[in-house]
Design goal:
With 262 residues, the protein is an alpha/beta fold. It has nine helices and twelve strands. The chain has a domain of 181 residues: Rossmann fold. 35% of the residues lie in helices and 27% in strands. It is globular and about 75 Å long. Bound molecules: adenosine-5'-triphosphate and magnesium ion (MG). The site of magnesium ion has 2 residues, from helix 1. Magnesium ion binds next to helix 1.
């Protein structure tokens, strides 16, 4: 599936979210276009997960507008978001460790042959499609029969992303996909994210704590701080050092260093 690059897929305008009396997000403006990787950075508790949970249909925004393809939406469940091609891959992946790679790829969407009550799983075709989908994205898995639990963390992330794309994701939401990974495995996932955007044209919302990872793949950046967007910039507008500085709290950190020095 390819789609026109640069076409805005989702847009949040002045979105706020409260849980009872607690304001968790305020005045959020964010848009993600086809083929673009939008990185959302922020400290613990900044509101990153809440933001993507709104986008993915797990929560509803309290005020403001959320549009998909220019139409206002208010999702009642992640299923409704998925129907519009908005798919979240969470840090704790919905994969079954003991099942083979190909079974996990088709989990919940199994292909069958024949008509009930004689229907049976079409294993050969599912394996073939899984193999093709993984190869297309440059993911090397030696044996599709191997339990998904025996893959590395990075490979598991890639399988979950490939699955989301195969089943029609137009916007892919990734919550800290590199957080639990080492340098090499993170590299594998980052390369794959970049490829998903460039070759499949999906819009990606990439949540991370790591400004280096963000800068490697990001077309645009949003830094969330205490529920508000503190910085929104396109790649051309800032260097990796700017991003690190702003991420670390910039001026705040400098004054802390000053205090510590005394
Ligand atoms: N259901 C809820 N009810 C009340 N407060 C909540 C709820 N969910 C989140 N919060 C609060 O909203 C704030 C932002 O939480 P959120 O999980 O979105 O942060 P985060 O940026 O994802 O943090 P982390 O980096 O730790 O994952 C926190 O102060 C949290 O306690
Ligand atoms: Mg979170």
């Amino acid at each position: 599936m390819t789609q026109q690059k640069g076409h805005p897929l989702i847009r949040l305008t002045d979105v706020s979210k409260s849980f009872g009396p607690i304001d968790v997000l305020r005045g959020i403006n964010l848009d993600v276009a086809a083929g673009e990787v939008c990185c959302v950075l922020g400290d613990n508790g900044a509101g990153k997960s809440t933001l993507i949970n709104i986008i993915a249909g797990l929560h509803q925004h309290t005020s403001g507008r959320y549009t998909v393809d220019g139409h206002d939406v208010r999702f009642g469940s992640p299923r409704e978001a998925l129907d519009l091609g908005i798919s979240a891959v969470y840090q704790h992946l919905a994969l079954v460790p003991l099942l083979p790679v190909w079974r996990n790829f088709f989990l919940g969407s199994e292909l069958t042959r024949g008509v009930w009550p004689f229907a049976r799983l079409d294993k050969a075709q599912m394996k073939e499609i899984t193999d093709q989908a993984l190869q297309n994205m440059g993911i090397v898995v030696k044996d599709l029969e191997q339990p998904v639990g025996t893959l590395s963390g990075g490979q598991r992330q890639c399988v979950a992303i490939a699955r989301a794309i195969h089943f029609g994701a137009r916007v892919l939401i990734l919550d800290e996909p590199t957080a639990a990974l080492g340098v090499k495995q993170s590299g594998v996932v980052l390369k794959y994210i970049s490829r998903a955007a460039q070759e499949s044209g999906v819009g990606v919302v990439f949540i991370t704590h790591n400004p280096h990872h963000a800068y490697m793949v990001g077309d645009s950046f949003a830094i969330l701080s205490r529920g508000e967007i503190d910085l929104r910039a396109r790649r051309e507008e800032l260097s990796v050092d700017d991003l690190i500085y702003r991420m670390a709290g910039g001026a705040e950190l400098e004054s802390l260093q000053h205090e510590m020095g005394r």
